[in-house]
Amino acid sequence: MKTTLSVIKADIGSLAGHHTVHPDTMAVANRVLAEAKRSGVISDYYITHVGDDLELIMTHSRGTLDPKVHETAWNAFKEAAKVAKDLGLYAAGQDLLSDSFSGNVKGLGPGVAEMEFEERQSEPIAIFMADKTEPGAFNLPIYKLFADPFNTAGLVIDPALHNGFRFDVLDVYEGESVTFTTPEESYDLLALIGTTGRYVVRRVWRKQDDLLASTVSIERLNLMAGKYVGKDDPVMVVRLQHGLPALGEALEAFSFPHLVAGWMRGSHYGPLMPVSQRDARATRFDGPPRLIGLGFNVKNGKLVGPSDLFDDPAFDNARRLASDVTDYMRRHGPFMPHRLEPAEMEYTTLSLVLEKLKGRFKKEEGLTKAKHSVYTAQSSE
Ligand code: F6R
Ligand code: MG
Ligand code: MG
């Protein structure tokens, strides 16, 4: 029998700004999921949060995009949002873009990473969840994890990994996808996924037997809503060991706190800081972008665990470097490359400010318009 792992997340409101969920909202979500477990819709679940995102980790045997499982998650978010409203929490119901549920949560606001698999004899998995960033934030670590031998020793040493992996990449602007195999097409893959705001690694398979190894939530809330409604704080599931990357190789990919888009007002580049669940609150400048990791074993559809993977002094240097980079980036204030590039800023409130400046420009005699204009205060005419 196959097991499905569904990680579904949403920001339904936060205590004192956008930095953390309130325990009462987690408690009510817990009640909804406990009832779904009792009635057999799901087999098991675990609830956590990173920053202002409520994370529902569920196992069941109903396959991906199952209406009942998605409805359960939707109801948990709706109930939690009600509590958030009653408590006067900030931005209550933020990610729930629709009033009504229709089959599954895709396009309704929540982020989803799901995979169905035949459980191996032992099925170790890691779930990575980030706040104040976007799905493309996982492009760099997922590349390191499955395609970089300097990160993942198994690519060189273990014959089961040696043939490489297949990456499924989604163009979130065009709604098109493309696959590449590594190592042979590594450069083509990198040519796309370096553009993190547009090309997102969605799934990875082991090439030799098509075993699904990883899946990432790809929802970009702002593109769905057409305006800024918060960042698309992503989740990623990775299956581990025995011919897949080891847990330590998966964690190693996050030992470098690379710069990701998001942070304050979804408008800044900052380092992705790996933290324990205890430190999963977005504080300084609404960040810096945070990442938590939980390790589980899946056995007969049950979740055994979790282990709080970054609650470890081995990641102190990554956190220190992230803090130093935070200081450095912050000193740029409103200047690029701390602030995002114009195309990404279109989905933020900056466009409202620029709109007001449009009428202030005067044509300069003798100067012609560039053929390829970048976004400026005037170019959206
Ligand atoms: C970023 C985020 C926060 C808010 C910021 C302003 O994803 O959620 O950084 O953008 O706190 O929030 P508002 O405009 O709601 O006051
Ligand atoms: Mg929020
Ligand atoms: Mg968030």
Could you describe the 3D structure shown?
This protein is an alpha+beta fold. Strands 5, 6, 7, 8, 9, 10, 13, 14 and 15 form a nine-stranded mixed β-sheet that branches. A four-stranded antiparallel β-sheet has the order 2-3-1-4, with helices on one face. A hairpin with a 4-residue loop joins strand 6 and strand 7. It folds into two domains: 1-117, GMP Synthetase, Chain A, domain 3, CATH 3.30.300; 119-362 and 369-375, no CATH class. It has helices at residues 23-38, 67-86, 139-147, 154-157, 159-162, 186-193, 221-225, 247-252, 316-330, 342-345, 350-357; strands at 2-10, 44-50, 53-60, 111-118, 124-131, 165-171, 176-182, 199-206, 211-216, 235-239, 259-262, 268-271, 273-274, 290-299, 302-308. Helix 1 (23-38) packs antiparallel against helix 2. The model has no long low-confidence stretch (mean pLDDT 94). The protein has eleven helices and 15 strands. The structure holds fructose -6-phosphate and magnesium ion (MG) (2 copies). Fructose -6-phosphate is lined by residues 17-18, 91, 132, 230-231, 264-266, 286. It catalyses: beta-D-fructose 1,6-bisphosphate = D-glyceraldehyde 3-phosphate + dihydroxyacetone phosphate; beta-D-fructose 1,6-bisphosphate + H2O = beta-D-fructose 6-phosphate + phosphate. Mg(2+) 1 binds at residues 11, 18, 52, 94. Its cofactor is Mg(2+).
